[in-house]
Structure formats: C-alpha cells, structure tokens
Amino acid sequence: MLEAIILLGAPGAGKGTAAERIREQAGYTHISTGDMLRDAVKQGTELGRAAEAYMRRGELVPDDLMIRLVEERLNTAGDGSFFMFDGFPRTLIQAELLEEALRKRDGKITHVLLLESPREVLMQRLTGRRVCRRCGAIYHVVNVPPKRTGICDLCGGELYQRADDQEATVVNRLEVYRRQTESLIEHYERQGLLRRVDSSQGPDKLVADIMRILRPTGREDATHRNCRGG
Ligand code: AP5
User: Fold this and answer.
1) Does 93 lie in the same domain as 30?
2) CA 145 from chain center: how many Å?
3) Which is the most buried residue in 15, 90, 149, 190, by most CB within 10 A?
4) Is 133 designated active site?
C-alpha cells in the first residue's frame, strides 16, 4: 500500500522547512519537485534545460514534464511506501494524474495540508531565504539565521539566494499560485482531505500542529524508515 500526504501552500509558506522536520519525525519520503528541478538544472539534463527558463521567470513548468518526473520517482517506490509531496501537484491536471498514478499502485492520498500565511509574511520569507549549495538546508537571514553568516550549520557549505527569490520574480510566483494552484484548495476540500494550518507561526509550533493531524494514521512510528527523495 502506498500512502501520500501533500503539502499545499503559496511560495514561502514554509513547505520545504516543515517537510524536512516531518520527514525526521514521521519517516515520510520527501518529494520536492522544486528540489528535483533545481537538481536537473544543475546537472544540465534534458529536463533541466527545458525547465530552467520557466523557473527563472517564476512560471510553472509544463504539466507533461512534471507528470513524467513524478511517475519516474514513484516507479522507484517499494511496497508500503509513505510519500510527502511538496510543491506537487500545482494544477488540476497534475492533481488528477497524481490520483490516477496512485490508484494504479494501489495507493491513496491520506491528507492535504494547506499551509496559510499572509502575503507580507510570504514576501519577507522569500526575499530573506538562503539555501545551502551543498546539502540544500534552508535558512532565513532573520527568522532562521545560520550561526556563521553565509555558512551552513550542518555541512559548512556556502549559502546562496535562489535566482527566483528576487523581489520581482517573487511577485510573479505569488500571482501564478493565485491563478493556477489555488483551485486545488476547493478540489481537495470537496474530497474531504484538506486541513488548514497556520504557517505564520514558527516552525516548531507549525510542525507540532501538523503532527497532531497526522498522528491518527500512526505514521509517527515510521521514523527513519524512508529517506529524503529527490
Ligand atoms: P518550489 O521550489 O516548489 O518553490 P515554491 O512552491 O515556490 O515554494 P518555496 O520553495 O519557495 O517555499 P516553501 O513553501 O518551501 O518555503 P520554505 O520552507 O523554503 O518551486 C520552484 C519553481 O519550480 C516553481 O516556480 C516552478 O517554476 C517549478 N515547479 C516546482 N514544482 C512544480 C510543479 N509541480 N509544476 C510546475 N512547476 C513546478 O521557507 C521560505 C523561507 O521562510 C525560508 O527562508 C525559511 O527559513 C523561512 N521559514 C519557513 N518556515 C518558517 C516558519 N514557520 N517561521 C519562520 N520562517 C520560516
């Protein structure tokens, strides 16, 4: 049986930060399509070359490329896998194809967690975000600062600002979310899967709220069973 949870929310809502903590506490395999795409761009693969211009503008990468990417990732799943999608699906078509892909594998979505924060919080978070070039750890110059400026606490790697975190691109990403992704809220609400979480609070309280929602499925027992996907 394959079970999946989805972290839904605007850019900067804190999906990646929460996902890493949920992975540590509950053992879900973390699938971040943003991380997978950035990796493909870095490696210069065919997908990376096709996706780069969309990402730089803050537009969505076409659905057919995204579906292929996620299908390939699901094909490597073993029996009894627990997945946490971060940044996928982002369109109704992606949502429908994900449901079909899970059904084919005798799987299902158990929860869709909508991380909600006001726009000014999203702007402040995205423009202040820094990411480790080596291990991908996420920081913020004010909210989650590293011990030494510009250096990752975990691996000593260099911290950098994502190309799409420039203010003009951030404004476009928020608009793209409103136009193309917000309709998923209603889609999952209709299925009775959606749970809203206040993501303007700090990461510890946010993750505690999420764990209270997930606990009835018993996934907190799965610690370290799966690992970071990507
Ligand atoms: P992606 O990488 O998925 O970006 P996103 O959805 O825009 O989300 P972000 O990574 O910007 O934000 P987040 O919610 O994860 O916040 P984070 O935890 O980092 O996608 C990038 C691009 O790839 C897209 O624009 C698109 O082009 C393409 N793409 C990806 N998936 C696609 C798909 N399915 N279809 C088509 N195209 C796709 O936190 C942000 C900052 O806030 C950090 O500095 C962090 O330290 C801080 N912070 C986080 N949580 C808290 C908290 N609780 N309190 C205080 N500070 C916090």
Assistant:
1) yes
2) 21
3) 15
4) no
pTM above 0.85, yes or no: yes
Over the stretch 172-187, which tens digit does the pLDDT of each residue have?
A: 999 999 999 999 999 9
Pocket residues for ligand 1 (CB within 6 Å)?
9, 11-17, 33-34, 37, 54-55, 58-61, 66, 87-88, 90, 94, 125-126, 128-129, 138-140, 143-144, 164, 173, 199, 202-203, 206
Residues 160 and 87 in one domain: no
Is residue 51 located within the same domain as residue 80?
A: yes
Beta-sheet pairing, 2-9 with 82-86: parallel
Residue 70: its H or E element: helix 63-75
User: At 216, is the secondary structure helix, strand, or coil?
Assistant: helix
Which of the following is catalytic: 23, 73, 125, 129? 129
* pLDDT, tens digit (0-9, with 9 covering 90-100), for 183-222: 999 999 999 999 999 999 999 999 999 999 998 654 444 4
Q: Give Cβ neighbours of residue 133 (< 8 Å, ≥ 6 apart).
A: 157, 158, 159, 160
Residues 160 and 199 in one domain: no
Based on the residue annotation, tell me whether 212 is a catalytic residue of this protein: no
Identify residue 176 by its one-letter amino acid code: V
